Amino acid sequence: MPEVLGPDAVDAAIAERGLAWSREGDELVKVAKRDRFAGALEFVNRVGALAEAADHHPDIDIRWDTVTLRLSTHSAGGLTEKDLGLAAEIDGLG
Amino acid sequence: MPEVLGPDAVDAAIAERGLAWSREGDELVKVAKRDRFAGALEFVNRVGALAEAADHHPDIDIRWDTVTLRLSTHSAGGLTEKDLGLAAEIDGLG
User: Fold this and answer.
1) Cβ-defined contact of B59 to A60 (cutoff 8 Å)
2) CB contact under 8 A, A60 and B61
3) What is the 3-state secondary structure (H, E, C) of chain A?
4) In angstroms, rounded to a whole number, what is the distance separating the alpha carbons of residues A69 and A61?
5) Do A48 and B63 touch (CB under 8 A)?
6) Largest CB tally within 10 Å, which of A34, A82, B7, B28?
7) Residues of chain B contacting residue A44, judged by C-beta atoms under 8 Å apart
8) What is the pLDDT along chain B (94 residues), one digit of tens a residue?
């Protein structure tokens, strides 16, 4: 079971690593706007491939051209390095 | 602009056509559980292809193996035949 990180530790990691995510309670949230619905769906598929590889899956909401991702380690009861690591990988998609 | 249908007309259409959707206010809602995340994502891609063909796009939420779809014709301000038609097509995916 990965260690749960407190809010200050998460906020510090977001800043230090330059993650394009915000912390909302015990979730990391990213809102990504893409080119129309097709671009949003393509992005979701790329996120999905990373999620499958990490065996860690964000909640994913698609609204036409906008995708909202929410990460948390539900099994651990909060945010962990698993979330920060996958967040960085998803940022790497550009 | 397609004609907005009242709640009674929508409910009647759902029953008559045997749609696996429920009406919540001015939205049609379908919750589909698939085989793990991979099955959910595959379903979303098939829904996405129908949505692009119809140029009408549901809101799509993915939670691991469960996909929630919400249809409404926002430009018309309510539910229309466009929603009922796409709902039936999505049901046809099985």
Assistant:
1) no
2) yes
3) CCCCCCHHHHHHHHHHHCCCCEEECCEEEEEEECCHHHHHHHHHHHHHHHHHHHCCCCEEEEECCEEEEEECECCCCECCHHHHHHHHHHHCCC
4) 7
5) no
6) B28
7) 41, 44, 62
8) 789 999 999 999 999 999 999 999 999 999 999 999 999 999 999 999 999 999 999 999 999 999 999 999 999 999 999 999 999 999 999 8
Distances (CA, A) of A3 to A17, A82, A87, B47: 19, 9, 17, 38
pTM: 0.96
User: Which residue from A26, A36, A82 is spatially nearest to B52, judged by alpha carbons?
Assistant: A36
Nearest CB to B63: which of A38, A51, A59?
Answer: A59
Map residue B5 onto helix, strand or coil: coil
**Among B37, B52, B60, whose Cβ lies nearest the Cβ of A51?**
B37
Using a CB-CB cut-off of 8 Å, the residues of chain B touching A52 are 37-38
Tell me whether residues B61 and A59 touch, CB distance under 8 A. Answer: yes
**Dihedral angle computed from the Cα positions of residues B80, B94, A51 and A35, in that order, rounded to the nearest 10 degrees:** -30
B68 alpha-carbon distance from chain centroid: 9
Residue of A nearest to B71 (CA): A63
Between helix B81-91 and helix B7-17 the angle, nearest 10°, is 30
Q: Tally C-beta pairs within 8 A across A and B.
A: 38
